[in-house]
Specification:
Elements lengths: L7 E5 L5 H6 L7 E3 L2 E6 L2 E8 L2 E5 L8 H7 L5 H6 L5 H9 L10 H9 L6 H15 L2 E3 L4 E3 L4 H5 L3 H5 L7 H12 L13 H9 L6 H11 L10 H11 L7 H11 L4 H13 L12
Antiparallel strand pairs: 1-5, 2-3, 3-4, 4-5, 6-7
Helix pairs in contact: 4-14, 5-11, 10-11, 12-14
The structure holds a DNA duplex (13 and 12 nucleotides).
Amino acid sequence: MRSHDHRSHTWQASDYDLAATLGCGQAFRWTAARGAWEGVVSGRWVCLKQSGETISAECPADQRDWAWLEDHLQLHVDLAAVLASFPDDIPLRSAVGACRGLRLLKQEPWECLASFICSSTKQIVQIRQIIALLSERFGDPIPSMHGLAHAFPSAAQIATATEAELRACKLGFRAPYLLATARRIASGELNLDALTAMPLAGAREQLESLPGVGRKVADCALLFGFGFPTAFPVDVWVLKALRQLYFPKRKPRPARLRHFADTYFGPHAGYAQQYLFHAMRLGKLSPATGLPG
DNA sequence: GTCCAGGGATTCA
DNA sequence: TGAATCCATGGA
């Protein structure tokens, strides 16, 4: 055991729930194994552990620096400041109380976009399986601490696949969407790197022009991959949360809910969305905790 | 607005 | 243990 090697690193991270963060369904390449979390970030295999307020990482090879992982885990984010920006209402208090230390990750844009194209009407466990198959079959082999692992395939790598090969990765009707989008990215017809510097609405419009990318998938990519803090993905869980908690005993039209989501939650709306999403899935939000009226 | 497109994990009888 | 339900939806 070496104490000053470059294969492992530790951080002090207060108010950080690693298990909730990696397992809540925002990213799909993390698996819990023997009290640790193993995953692939930016083409690097890594094993993470949390003990109290210490997070440790171990890689199969020496690392020059750990900025790639610090960025992915968003270790610099002041969670208290994020939570303080939320509207002070009963649903969010309840969600925050149920998900202490839940964080948003910063994923690679292409991987995130592709993952959520695969996500439509799939459950999180199934999405993980799809992403694992895509990586095994089309991604670059990389070293891990037990045999070979695989990087998430680039758009160019997926673009070389056939629709049948993608369907064999359990994509079903999503296969042609992913293939067509990969080709548009790989050809340079749409440059994902340019989206980061654009206003949210413009970036969203660009993403929604891609096959298989509607409002919800675009918002997931914008929030989890491109770092737009006000993107607010509305999936079936968040829809349920909004209806039950903010509009009980009413039947708001979808456009009304959309407007509410886009205007109510403040500068870190995406974070608020993640708390509502996760708390709802945990069954920690009940209609009884909703607002009056 | 309605309908359809994989399929398997999960739930429930 | 077999059937029903549900799923981080988008497009025609």
